[in-house]
Amino acid sequence: MSQLTINSLEELESYQGKELGVSEYHTITQEQIKKFADATLDHQWIHLDENRATIETPFRSTIAHGYLTVSLLPYLWGQIVKIGNVKMQVNYEIESLRFNQAVTVNSRVRLRAKMLSVKNLRGIAKTQIEVTLEIENSRKPAYTGVVTFLYHFND
């Protein structure tokens, strides 16, 4: 699916209740997991010790941090929708985020997004987006939730 370009509050409103699209797949590598562990100081062995994870976990490999997968939201969202004509975008809120399944190393994930609502807050667009992080060849997503972005459009 090609990237949507939206340049105004009115254009945003026209997508209420509609699926916006799906990003490209992104491969979660062990190097990315290690860098995330270093950045967040979360060095739990299930993410980093490949030998132990193979033997002692039901996943039979290391897994990505849940918050690593959440941190991919802006990157994957940007593949689905380009919001133009804005002064600023603010990540405002995440509601009802539920981790459904671990993402094992070398899995490929992609984001599916649906526009739930758009509200005009005195010129600022408050958007609620239903997000699902899909894992390639898995019926169960890594997570589901609702994210809220604020868009300050240029006049």
UniProtKB/TrEMBL annotation:
Signal peptide: none annotated. SUPFAM superfamilies: Thioesterase/thiol ester dehydrase-isomerase (SSF54637). InterPro entries: HotDog_dom_sf, MaoC-like_dom, NodN-like. Gene3D superfamilies: Hotdog Thioesterase. It holds the Pfam family MaoC_dehydratas. Residues 17-131 form the MaoC-like domain. PANTHER family: MAOC-LIKE DEHYDRATASE DOMAIN-CONTAINING PROTEIN (PTHR42993). This is Acyl dehydratase.
